[in-house]
Design a protein that fits this description.
26% of the residues lie in helices and 16% in strands. α3 packs parallel to α4. β1 and β2 form a beta hairpin. The two termini are 23 Å apart. The protein is an alpha/beta fold and 168 residues long.
């Protein structure tokens, strides 16, 4: 006897991008929240992270501002990007892995991504495409053979409901 399965389930790509976006909601950055999810060739999650300050560095004492006369009075010298946190949180080798992230990676993240062995970046937005940082990232990804793919899900959003689970 054949049973029909549900047809509106999310794809692997939607699942992993959804996890990266959910992870971004842990970020305390008031301007830009980014999450990253790394998966292996078997679609097993092997790393996840979001942008924030290093462990032990108080997010109440360090600045979250984007502009100041002194760079050390901004967030930039202190924030660890989501991609790097996901790599540092990984549970096994990243050789051949895919990284799902909302924003196209900066040049500093690109170097770490390449060195870790990740072979594909799936990103949601390339809003800083004209920046020198992203131009450098793309150059390094191209030279090292890291594939860059814009996310193309079937749906534009997912709803998470923390109320009692009921059948769809």
């Amino acid at each position: 006897m054949k049973h029909d399965k549900r047809k509106d389930y999310i794809s692997w790509e939607e699942y992993f991008m959804g996890l990266s976006l959910l992870s971004s909601m842990r970020s305390k950055d008031p301007n830009t929240q980014v999450g990253a999810c790394i998966v292996d060739e078997s679609n097993k999650i092997i790393g996840i992270g979001y942008n924030g300050f290093p462990i032990g560095c108080s997010d109440d004492e360090l600045p979250w501002t984007r502009k100041a006369d002194n760079i050390n009075d901004t967030k930039y010298p202190y924030v660890v990007h989501a991609e790097v946190n996901a790599i540092l949180n990984s549970t096994k080798s990243l050789k051949g892995a895919r990284l799902f992230v909302a924003l196209f990676p900066c040049n500093e993240c690109a170097k770490v991504i390449i060195q870790s062995g990740i072979k594909e970046i799936i990103f949601l937005d390339d809003k800083y495409a004209d920046s020198d940082s992203v131009k450098a990232s793309k150059k390094m990804f191209s030279m090292s053979g890291v594939k860059c793919t814009i996310f193309n899900g079937r749906r534009s959003n997912l709803l998470i409901n923390f109320n009692k689970i009921e059948p769809l």
